[in-house]
Amino acid sequence: MAKKLLRYCAFLATVGLLTLAACSSKPGLRAPVEDRGRVATQISTPTPEVSAAPANGPAVVVDSNAGKPGYYTVKQGDTLIRIGLESGQSHRDLARWNALENPNRIEIGQVLRIVPPEEAAVSKPVASAKVISAPLPAATAASAPASAPAKAAAAPAPSSTPAASALEDDISFAWPAKGDVLDGFDEAKNRKGVDIGGASGDAVLAAADGKVVYADAGLRGYGKLIIVKHNSLFLTAYAHNQTLLVKEDQTVKKGQKIAEMGSTDADRVKLHFEVRKQGKPVDPAKYLPAR
User: Fold this and answer.
1) Statement to judge: residues 205 and 275 lie in one domain
2) How do beta strands 270-277 and 257-261 pair?
3) Which of 82, 85, 72, 70 is nearest to 228 (CA)?
4) Model pTM?
5) Is residue 131 part of a domain?
6) How open is the CA angle 211-213-218, to the nearest 5 degrees?
7) Do the beta carbons of residue 224 and residue 262 sit within 8 Å?
8) What is the pLDDT of residues 154-186, one digit of tens each?
9) Which domain holds residue 214?
10) Do the domain assignments include residue 152?
């Protein structure tokens, strides 16, 4: 009995050794595991279009009118008043044409219309009508005189004719003050008008008939400023005044006293006078009479 027990124990020991040998024959190996959840997540995540937006901010929406004639893109330091002066328009008109709820808030990159909406339509070329000889409908023939000549096309708007443009260009300006000229117009030195000397309180006169489109002190470098629009081509600016005697939307006559000379935002008492044609500064000496 003791021998059988010893043989059984030896058998169990042999089986245990064989099992250990089998398990240790390939140490450190594990069954391969496929991380399907991670792979699926990577595949399903869309790749962002980096080129559609700057690296440091959101995508920039570009206005389709940017760069087109009749439109202006706002730059650093711009105000609606300055844009009006540079474009030859009233800042109130700019606000209305662009439906600005707050004219004092414009943003860099914003695109603004700087010509009247109807002007773009007038300036488009119109194909000449072709007259075709055909019987008129009964109703039309009855309403038209028998001797009335046929019209090939409607007459162009008066403002678009060369004669009308020449008439607006031929405007007669008068000197806005009696003092001596201190500095003349010099485009190279960025002098956009003439500086006329005088004493504090001297009369500042409207250079021609027109409508006041600005009368305030909101444009840096000009002090108390008046801008008068004379027609679709010309406006004049009167800067550094001590006192303003007219208000916006007021009609003024040539030679009318509109302000008193001063030194607001200037180094001395003087009148800075500009003539602008379609918003561009031009030499006032070419338009003012000789003294």
Assistant:
1) yes
2) unpaired
3) 85
4) 0.63
5) no
6) 150
7) yes
8) 443 444 455 555 666 779 999 999 999 999 999
9) 181-286
10) no
